Structures are given as C-alpha cells and as structure tokens.
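Entry for the shared binder. Reason: the reviewer on the internal report wants the predicted structure included alongside the sequence.
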Amino acid sequence: MAILDKEAYEAKKRSAERRMTDTAEKESLNAKQHAKLARLCKFKNMMRTNQKAFFFFDTQDHILFWGLVDYEINEYLDDVKLPCIDFGDTDSPYITNENYEDKGLGYNDALALTLQFAEKVDKAIEDYLRMIDDQAGTNYCPNGETKL
C-alpha cells in the first residue's frame, strides 16, 4: 500500500465519497442495501489501513475487526437480502500478540500469518464488491486509482 501525503489522501477520499454518492443513486439496489454496502466499503478501508489490529489484542480495532469478520458483516448483509461473504475458517488464523507462543509460533511468523489473513479478508470483500458491481451496475469496488 502506497503512502500518500495529506493532500493526495484527501483527494482520493473525496473521489471515493463522490463515487459512493453516485453509486447510491443506482436503482438496481434499494436504499438499505446501498447503505450497507457503503458501510462495508468503510469497514474495508479501516481494516486495510490498519491490518496489524488483527494481531494486536490490546487495540480497540482488534475486537471490532474480528467481530466484523466473524459475524457482523454477514449478519447485516443478510438483513437486507444481499448474499454473504465467505471468509473461510476464522478460528484457525486467530493469532494475537498474546497467544502466538501458545500456538508454537515466533513473533514474526505469527504476525506474518495474521497479516496474510487480513489480506485474505480484504480480497474477499473486494471480490464481493466486484461481484455486486457486475450484477447491479454499481461502483462499490475500489480500483487502482481510487484505492485508499
């Protein structure tokens, strides 16, 4: 992930906000579905820009991210009759800075495995958004130009 200066980051953020506003006007989905997909995009960006929170147990985002992946994302997608996302097994990769030694791992290996899982989550959400875009004619999936 590239590191952007504040001006470039703000420009990309404004571009993403415009894209979300334009996409929300598509009639192929209802307002509640659009709201949930926009929320999913925000969560994806939060997780993508702070992947280490999956590993560091003592961070506020750690509980949020694991809760989102374990049940919340699919619960609210199902609530508006959208298909769920297959994140695969979320129990096996649950490695933190507090339990990695119990799993027979060194710190660097444990962190690398957790970051691999975070990348897998990011890709699953991106693939899901691409599928929704293809089916509904929307523009939720970030492309290379608009990815934050």
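Summary line for the report: The two ends are 8 Å apart (CA to CA).
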